[in-house]
Design brief:
The protein is of the alpha+beta class and 350 residues long. The protein has nine helices and 19 strands. Helix 1 runs antiparallel to helix 5. It is globular.
Length: 350
């Protein structure tokens, strides 16, 4: 799963949120907002969840645009604080403090994310598991790389088990069965947070907008009647644009293993960890999912990164007819569903 180990304690949802084939980094593949000189188009960027989040919206009322943007940022920041591993008063931090003890009441937004996480964990037979927060010794920050010793890894592995995350949805309470367990919602919380921002924009009357959060893009409506165009990076050659997806009212979600890594003793270690071993996954280099809604794809890309053959087949069967899929295989080949073949407009080779 995208167990993404933290770089430092200020990256509120962990380094998981850096990974993505749809990058806001200049020079890489971007969500194309287009028409920057249009008086009815406004763009704003902030750092949330350890990555750059960009919002572009179209509306002819400048005051409404400003109000919608500020409200969307405020709502997303509220949810980030709620789901952070490091905020002293967050729901996740309270759960970690109470691990091994009594259940803790959690807000409905956090409960919804945890329910989705458990659904994906069961579907993938543990290839996705938010209790990977226990693997706390990995460091992938440039200049500050580190990895756990075998003894540390064994001790942490004993605390990773999605079956020990217990949800009492009837009473709105959650508990972690073992003392020392930790959560990392980096692979499951970002899409709902971005979706909440989009919901706020719509509530304010904005019908045409795009939110790009690193590896995930949410679109609504169009830009002056034209589809939003979202660039897809080639996970086998990350500096290259593979192609473009054009869409309205949908989601493009991605996971990739190339954003954060280091080499030691001739071996490359990347930041997407397999919950079952605590070591970097040995599956695909990247996954891109395109769908109409967030719940269809949320967590599935991360699960596919670490899934074994049988679990991969289960996940793809669930996605059939609901999402278009692109997988960058470890052998440098690409696998696509028929829908993705039709949808992806390949970029010309240089």
């Amino acid at each position: 799963m995208a167990a993404r180990a933290c770089m430092n304690r200020r990256q509120v949802l962990g380094s998981a949120l850096i990974a993505g084939l749809l990058s806001p980094i200049p020079g890489m593949a971007l969500a194309r907002s287009g028409m920057p000189g249009s008086p009815d188009v406004q763009r704003d960027s902030r750092t949330l969840m350890g990555t750059q989040v960009d919002i572009t919206l179209q509306h002819d009322d400048a005051m409404l645009r400003d109000a919608a943007l500020q409200a969307a940022w405020a709502e997303m920041a509220r949810l980030v604080r709620m789901m952070s591993r490091y905020e002293a008063g967050s729901g996740v931090m309270m759960l970690q403090r109470a691990a091994g003890g009594v259940p803790v009441p959690v807000p409905p937004e956090l409960m919804a994310v945890l329910r989705q996480a458990q659904q994906v964990a069961r579907l993938s037979d543990g290839a996705f598991d938010v209790t990977v927060g226990a693997y706390a010794q990995w460091r992938f920050e440039p200049g500050h790389v580190d990895m756990p010793t075998p003894a540390e890894l064994a001790a942490e592995r004993a605390l990773v088990n999605h079956r020990h995350l217990l949800l009492d949805t009837a009473h709105g309470q959650v508990s972690l069965k073992q003392s020392g367990m930790r959560l990392d919602l980096g692979g499951i919380a970002k899409l709902p947070i971005l979706q909440a921002g989009m919901a706020v924009l719509k509530w304010h009357g904005v019908r045409n907008a795009i939110i790009n959060g690193g590896g995930d893009v949410i679109t609504a409506g169009s830009l002056h009647g034209r589809d939003w165009r979202i660039g897809i990076r080639d996970a086998h050659a990350p500096a290259r644009l593979l192609g473009v997806v054009a869409m309205r009212d949908g989601i493009v979600a991605s996971s990739g293993d190339y954003e954060r890594s280091f080499e030691r003793n001739g071996r490359r270690y990347h930041h997407i960890l397999d919950p079952r071993s605590g070591l970097p996954t040995q599956g695909p280099h990247g996954v891109v999912l395109v769908a109409r809604g967030t719940e269809v794809v949320n967590g599935r890309g991360a699960a596919l990164m670490g899934a074994q053959t049988a679990q991969r087949d289960v996940i793809l069967r669930e996605l059939k007819g609901q999402a278009d899929v692109l997988i960058f295989e470890r052998d440098q080949s690409r696998w696509m569903t028929p829908g993705m073949v039709r949808r992806l407009q390949m970029a010309p080779r240089a």
